[in-house]
Each structure stands twice: as structure tokens, then as C-alpha cells.
Amino acid sequence: MKNLLYLILLLAVCASVSFAQPSRDSELSKVQSLDQAALSKGDSLPLMDVKDHMYRAEVYMSNRQFPSARAHWKIVLANFPDDPSIPAALFGMGRSNMWERNYETAIEWFDKLVKDYVATPEGQEGLAFKGACYVRIGKNLDAARTYEMYAAMFPSGKRIESAYLNIIDAYREAGEYDKADEWVDRTAGKFPGQPSEVNALHARLRMYLFRKNWQGTEATAQKLLELNRFSGSMAYEYEVTYLKAYALEMMGSEDLAMRVYNSIPADPASYYAGLASDRIEALGGSSAARESEMRSRAAKMSAQFPVRFRNELVRYGRERGVDPRFLLAIMKQESSFRPTAKSPAAARGLLQLTYDTAMKYSAAAGHGKITANSLYSPAVNISIGTMYIKKLKEEFSGLYEAIAASYNGGEDNALRWLERSNPRERAIFASEVGFAETKKYVFKVMGNYRVYSELYDENLVKK
User: Considering 247, 270, 300, which residue would you say is the last residue of a domain?
Assistant: First the structure.
């Protein structure tokens, strides 16, 4: 779902700075009714106790109703300048603008927070998110310097590992490859034996791949395979195996590359297993045995891959040029086919749509005014969700991996990962996905999609 990772991160932040997490529908309805009643009597919200304003802001924020949340934070900032809630209000102003992709405005708010409250938990978080905003507007050197400031000020901070890794990627995206390589070594040295060491080496692998340094790619992949410490990291054994084989292929060692591709087990739910079969076939090798095993194993898994809401999926998928099997793959991962599902990040229904995203596409999908609760209707949810996925498909030229990454990690991030993909192969893009949660999500969704494609045709009729 759109920007789910951002929301999960904020909920973690809220827990660390004693924010409430009021995302229940009943609380949202109550707060909306109270505010609407107050506005019916005047042009602005009345001044209340600071705790009431902060509570209402948090209810709106956790339900992605950002302008309404900011209305309450602004009252706190204007009327309670010495209250302990000020850092939380400043953080909320910055974070809500970041979610709405108003990155320059978000940076201004984070600057105010860091300037006066850097020693608070919110100030520490604000500095990290300021770096993330710079990345999203392409100011990579500013991002690197911001993350370096975080690393210097908070050497044991909760985001210290991600700060080091973000420095590597920021310098790489700025074209400062020597500095990026230096920070790989510094990261590996600071976190020896930990997942961040593996992540740093994986960053070097991706950087070599981007620069088409095939020997460096193969050697780094081999080092990672020899370390064999993938648990807890963002690198996966079969991903690295695939990239090693790809580098060998690019160097002209096609027979060896095919042997390495073949070493990836033929599991239909495994993302790189299917891609390995595709590469073997492209190289002129025989993948018939692998494909037969994939089909056989997929058939045994059919009970785990049911078809639900077939009529709606086929209808809207056909109308909007989206494969219904991909919609099923998303739905399985998002809600396990439960229409009433609601996430801690306030995403609702079968395709786990957030209200702000649904509002953007409801008219195009043929719906009038909707409420957050409208998203619990299967027909409404599938209709709007398919329209949203159609837009992503157009934006990412039909690359389903990028659609899945955007659905979970945000469009700006997916576009950035696509720019880092060189060559723009499916497997290269998947490796570049920069959030652990989103990368795992892409692998899961694409594995689901492959199994559904083995079992059903585009009309969701069993083969």
C-alpha cells in the first residue's frame, strides 16, 4: 500500500516519544464530528487544552488526514510555545508534509525542530527525516552531509545503522563513487559481524553492477556468499547468487553462469527462481525440467492461492489493463482477502487503500464522494485500487516489480530505485529496493503472481 513503510516508521517513532496511536474508525468519526460542529459556529477551530489539540491531531495523522492534523498542531505552536508538546507538533508538521511529498516545506519544519530541540527524541528523528527529504528532491550531497551530522551527533542513535547506509547511497547517487566506497569500508568496520556489514557490501555490489564493473560485481557477490550471513540483512542468498550469475553472463562466461542460475532451487513462490529459469532459457539452455518442477510444485500449493472476488477482479482488471492475477497477488499479501481488514497505518479493505490515496482516484474510478468506511466495500475497494494500480502501471511502463515497490514504499522511492537500476532489468530493480520491508514485499507479491500465473489464466479460470 502507498507509503505503508513511512506509516510503520512513524508508529515506531510515536511509541518512542510517547505519542498516542489512535487510528480506530470510531475515534476518527468522533473527532471529525466535534470539529465539524465547532466550525459550523465559526471560521476557525476553538482554542482548547493543548492535550485535546494534540490528541485530535494524532487521530487525524494516524488516519492520513494531514491538513486536519496540521490545523491542530498550528494552534499548539501559536498558543503554547513553551509546552513540552512543541517538538511533537513540529515533527508532525514536517512528517505530514513529507508524506504529502511537500519535501521543501518538510525540510523547513525539520530545520525548526532540529535548531531548537535536537536533543529530544523528535529532534533526533527530525534530523534523520531531513536527510530523507533531501534524497527525495535529488540533493544527495546535502543528504549525505545531513546523515553524517546524524552519525556524528548520535553515534548510538536508533537510526545510526541506516544513517551509515544512507550515506553510501547518497554519495553513490551524487556520482561520488570513491566516497561511497570509503563509507562501505567505514560501515563494515563499525558494524563487523552484523547485518549492516552485509548491507554495506551489498551496497558495493549494487554500485559495481550499476557501473557495469562485472568483475567487481562477481567478486563482491562471491564474498557475500562466502560470509553466508544474510539473516537480518537486506541481502538474500538467491538474490546474490542470481547477481553473481548475471555478472558472469555479462563477462561472457555463459556456461558457468547457467550452472550458477541452476543452483537456485526451482520454487515457484521464490522470486529469483523464476528469473533464473528465464535467464537459462535466454542463454539457450534447457529449463524444461525446472519449469516442470515449478508447475508441479505450484499445483500442490493451489489451496494456498485461492481466487476470491473473481467477478470484480476480472471486470476492473480488464477495463484498466491490469492482470487480475497481479491484483490477487497484491490482495493476498495485503489483506489475506479480508474486506474489513485495517492496518495500524489506517489502510483499509482488500487492497489496503489509505483514504488519501483513495480520494485521488475515486472520481476516475466512477465513484462520487467516499468516506474512509467506503473502502471496506469489496467492489469500491477493488474499483479504486485497480484504478490506482493502472496509474502506477503507466508510470512504471508495466514493470510489475516497480508497481509493487511503489504500492508499498511510495512512488518517489520506486522512481529513485528505478533510476539506480542499470541495466533496467527486473532483477536489478528488485535488488535496488532500499527498504527492507518493501523489498520483502516485492519478493512476496511477485512470488504470488508467478504462482497465480501458473495456476490460472487471465480470466482467473484454472488451467
Answer: 300
